[in-house]
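FAQ: What does the model actually see?

It sees only this:
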Amino acid sequence: MVRIVRSDAGLLAIDQEAEHANTLIAAQAGVGAGVLEHRPELGTTVLEFLPGRTLVESDFAEPAVLDRAADAVRRLHAAPRFVNDFDMFARQERYRQVVAEHGFPLPASYDDHAPAWADVRRVMTATAGATVPCNNDLLAGNFIDDGARVWLIDYDYSGNNDPCFELGNTATECEFDADLTRAWTAAYAGRDDPRLLARVRLQALCSEYGWSLWGFIQAGSSALDFDFHGWGMHRFEKAARTFTSPELPRLLEQVSAGG
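And it is asked to produce this:
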């Protein structure tokens, strides 16, 4: 497999040196593809081929697949620390500045949720635990399943982070319903933990609100023939529903109660 440096890396805050270093760490931990050759002057990295199939969202409904995927995430989180940190609150601020500076179109109500976003940030920061190496972009296509174990690929946005962001990001990117989100969290933790689940759900909200800006930046800057605006709107609309739901105060209280 060959990876090519993205032309939009600057706008999207991709640290290519950190990506390479973290890819090496993930490979050494036995959870990512090995690096066969790295040619930064050419913007190219050659990775080993991983036998297996790329997962799709519906695969996670199979308990054995869910367990293998959760095991892979646990192994990544137990790896040596990555060389950088990832914080969606800081990234959302940066992406919002990029949108403003370039005049990229944004939903008219995006900033209406800033007060609720501040509440989420306050609670998550006050109750934060230790960070671990995270991929931070584990959509279904970044899981490779060989039937015995799952591998995790693509470390563009990797960095040390709250492990619950990893879980919440996958839950929302893969369109898990409430029951599957609970099963996913329990498969990772080895137990049902209501407070952990509440934190995962809040981190899913953080993923939606923050990554939606990624879509709006891409919509305004990418030459690719893809509906990035629609991609961003899907995530923003999910975030908006949670921001305006009576469930949000309950989730914040549940996480705060154990802080």
